[in-house]
C-alpha cells in the first residue's frame, strides 16, 4: 500500500482545511460555522493519522491524538449547540453576527 | 488478501468478483426478508388465533409477500408538493445503505465472512448509527408534522438506546479481549456468553428491540398516534425501501445476537457433525422468532417511559455489568 | 496507478465534493447531510492508512453523533424563511476571504509537495489492542482528563439547554 505518496494525503487535508476556513469566515449561520470548524478539525486529524504511518518515526501516537481531538470536538459541538438553543430562546436569531448582546 | 488486492494492478476481474459476492449476499437477505414478513404475519395470526394470509400460494400463503411487493412496485410514487424534493429522494438511500453495509462483518459460518475486521463490533454499531440520519432527513423533508415527530422520536430513541447497547457489549469484549467477531465466536468454544453474561444479554436484547424500532418500542411509527411516523408521506417503492432497511436490520441484529451470545456457528455439545452454517441458521431463526414473539405479546409503551427505561434502568445496569465483569476477570481469569 | 491509488482518488473526490456542497448548497439541512459524505470519506481514508479504530471512531462520533446533534440544533431553532439573511454577506468580503484562503492553500501546498516520506508498517498485528495499551499506560492522565471534560460538557449542555423554572411555568 506504499504506492500513495504522503503528500497526496496532506494535499487533501489542505483542501478540506481551506474549505472549512472559507465556510467559517463567510457563513453567518451558527450551525454552518460549527460544521466548518469540525471540518477543519477533521483536516488536522488526517495529518495526524498520515504522519503516524509515514514519517521518520512512525508510531501510534498520531492515532491516539486524533482520538483525543474527536472527543474534544464532540464536547465542543454539544456545548456550542446548547448555547445556541439557550440564546435562541432569548433572541430568535441563528445568525452568528447578530449574537452581539455583550457588545452593547 | 486485502493487501494483495490493494497493491496489485487494478483488474475488472476483482470488481466482478466483489460485485458478484455482494449481489449473492443481497439476494440471500432479500429472500430472508420476503419470508420474514410472511412469518411475522403467520406468527401474529397464530398468536391471535386466526389463519393469517392463506390465499396466494396455498394454505400457507407462500406467495403473499411477492404479491405485496408487486403491488408496491406498481404503485405511483408520490412526492408531496411542499416536500424538500432532493432530501425526500435521498433519505431512503441514506437509511438503506448502512443496513446492507453492516452485513459485511458478520461471520455466517467458519469460512463465510466477508470482512474479518478487528473492530467488527464497533463497525456494526457505528455504521448502523448512520441510518438515523436517513430517518430524520425523511421526517424533515416530508414537511409534515407527523413525519417530523416520528423522525425526532426515532433519533432520540436510537441515540438513547445505542449507549446501553454498546455498554452491554463491553462485557463480552472484556471477556474475549478482542472486538473481532470471529475471535468472539472462538472464545465461546465451551460456554456461550449468554450463560456467562446473562445481564448483558438481556440489556442487549431490549436495546436491540428499541434500535430496530419494533414493538413494544415502535413509537417511531405508532400508527395510532403518528399515522405512519417518518414514512407517512412515502409511497410505493420508496416506502418499500424503508421497510426493506428495517428487515435488513432485523436480519443483521439477529445475526449479531447469534454471534455475540449464542456462539455463532459453534455446535451444541456433541452434535459437531452438523455443519456450522446449519447451527448458525437454527440459532438465528430462534432469535428472529423471539423478536416476533415479543412484538405480539407486549403492549406499546409510552415515550417518556421509553426514555426512563433507557437512561434510568438499562444504562446503570449496563455500567454495573461492565464493572462486575472487569472485577471478575481481574480476580479469576488472569 | 495501483488499486489503492484508484481507491484514494475516489475517496478524495468524494471528500472534496462533500465539502464543496457544504459551501454552495442553500439549505442548512442539505449542508449537514453533505457533510456526512465528507466525514465518511475521511473515515475511509483512515482505513486506507491502516487506522481502523480511528476510522470507526470517526464514523461513530462524527457521522453518528455530531451530525445528529447538528440536525437537532437546526430543527429546534428553525421554522421557516431559512436563509433569508444568508445572502447578506457582501460579495466583496467573499472575494477577499476566498483570495486569502486560496493563498494559504497554495503556500501550504508548496510546503507539503516536497514531503516524500516512505510508508512503514508501524505495527504488525492488532492495532486496536496496541492503541488500548498505549492509551492506558502512557496517556492515562490525558485520557482521564478527557473523560472529565466529556462529563463537564454533558452536564453543562444539559444545564444550558434546560428551560428556566419561570419560563417552564409560563
How does this structure look, described?
The complex is a heterotrimer of chains A (104), B (334) and C (170). Chain A is mainly α and 104 residues long. Chain A has helices spanning 6-26, 30-53, 61-90. The mean pLDDT of chain A is 85. Chain B has 334 residues and is mostly helical. Chain B contains 13 helices and no strands. The model of chain B has no long low-confidence stretch (mean pLDDT 83). Chain C has 170 residues and is mainly alpha-helical. In chain C, α1 (3-24) runs antiparallel to α2 and α2 runs antiparallel to α3. Chains A and C meet through α1, α2 and α3 of A and α1, α2, α3, α4 and α5 of C.
Tell me the layout of helices and strands:
The complex is a heterotrimer of chains A (104), B (334) and C (170).
Chain A: H1 6-26, H2 30-53, H3 61-90
Chain B: H1 2-7, H2 12-47, H3 64-74, H4 85-101, H5 120-141, H6 145-176, H7 181-187, H8 193-196, H9 198-211, H10 223-226, H11 236-261, H12 276-297, H13 303-332
Chain C: H1 3-24, H2 28-48, H3 52-77, H4 91-112, H5 127-137, H6 140-161, H7 165-169
Helix pairs in contact in C: 1-2, 2-3
Helix percentage range of chain C:
over 70%
* Biggest interface: A-C, 73 and 87 residues
Write down the overall geometry of chain A: elongated
The total of helices of chain C stands at 7
Topology pattern of chain C, helix = H, strand = E: HHHHHHH
Helicity of chain A, as a percent range: over 70%
CATH architectural type of chain A: Orthogonal Bundle
**Compute the gyration radius of chain C: what is it?**
21 Å
Question: What are the secondary-structure elements of chain A, in order, as H or E?
Answer: HHH
Radius of gyration of chain A: 17 Å
Based on the coordinates given, report the CATH architecture of the largest domain in chain C: Up-down Bundle
Remind me, CATH topology of chain A?
A: Helix Hairpins
Percentage of residues in DSSP E strands of chain C: under 5%
Structural class call of chain C reads mainly alpha
Number of domains of chain A: 1
Q: Provide the number of structural domains of chain C.
A: 2
CATH class of the largest domain in chain C: Mainly Alpha
